[in-house]
Structure prediction request, 408 residues.
Amino acid sequence: MDLTRDDTIYALSSGLVPSGVATIRISGPDCRFVIETIISKKIRPRYTELVLLKNPSDGSLLDQALVLWFPAPNSFTGEDVLEFHCHGGRAVVEAVLKALSSLTGLRMAEPGEFTKRAFLNDKMDLVEVEGLADLISAETDMQRKLALRQSDGSISSIYEEWRHILIESRAMIEAELDFPDEEDVPGSLSNLIWPRIVNLKEKMNKAINDTKIAERIRDGLSVVLVGSPNAGKSSLLNHLSHRDIAIVSDIAGTTRDSLDSYLNLNDIPVILTDTAGLRESTDVIELMGIKKVREKITEADLIIYLEDSNSISINDKLPDDFIDLKNKIDKELIFVGTKADLVDSQDFKSIQSRYDILISSKTELSIDSLIDEVSRRCKALVTHSESFISVRERHKEALEKVVNHLIN
Prediction:
């Protein structure tokens, strides 16, 4: 449907009810009418007022609430904005929303419409809108910091500075071309301009290269569990996820498809993927699963190769699949021995040096050490995230077009 700014919209803008407090936001030209009909009290702008909300149809009490009143244009949307901070019971919220729906000129807001109106009223640009969306969905502190740089206008100001440099450079070059003999146009302006353009192009190329890393922070770094069947991949996935995502069984080949779990490991956003066991097989479905493992490996940021340490002796050679990964794949790789709780104490000492870490999902032996190691290596992949400029594919594509024009 067409969204107009001539009507007044309302919606529950806080989380799902029931809750301690529920915030109902109203934006549009009829906010003053809402004050007159539901509150019946003069409200001071930008002050918190404790009021009684009355049903406009019969004057019955809806709730006692805190009210905030932001006259245009000094509001989030740039329009008149009214907020009711009600008790968060379902019945209370439904009663207030029903009362608002009974008023002429008011309608329920479409998803994202408050932010859309802020954009249309020049209260936010598109980069800030994207940052706000990322800030709302942020689950780690690293994601929060990256989103804040977008939503507070820091990245927009950099783009605006680059735009100013391009416009100024073009104007000075055109002046030199059009008025070469004029005294008020300095000679050899191009000698001053081109070094600035080269420097700007370098900054843009860096921003383009940073996009992939920024996407890792926003979407999560890909960590893939790889190994032979019954190596303990599913057990580790379940343990780190604190829930039974994968089926754990002594029967080899139980996992046929990839299973993902989103984790926050020491403030690092990670998508941990359990995969089918690597082995020779004639089972068509299992072979499809093994093919997917290969695909996941090429997409991964970090690979954890798991081996059942209980079945290993000191003279056993390293798995061929692990050697191939180490020699042929340019990825972060951690070699982990599992089921250490089943290993004899004497054997434990002899095989410990074989692995980066020796763990037990059952007894939680060295699980914290594994988490720390995964976090450390993942964090190294997203260093200097506070300086990222291009953080979305849309930004990257726009910058690539600019750089191509600068080159040509």
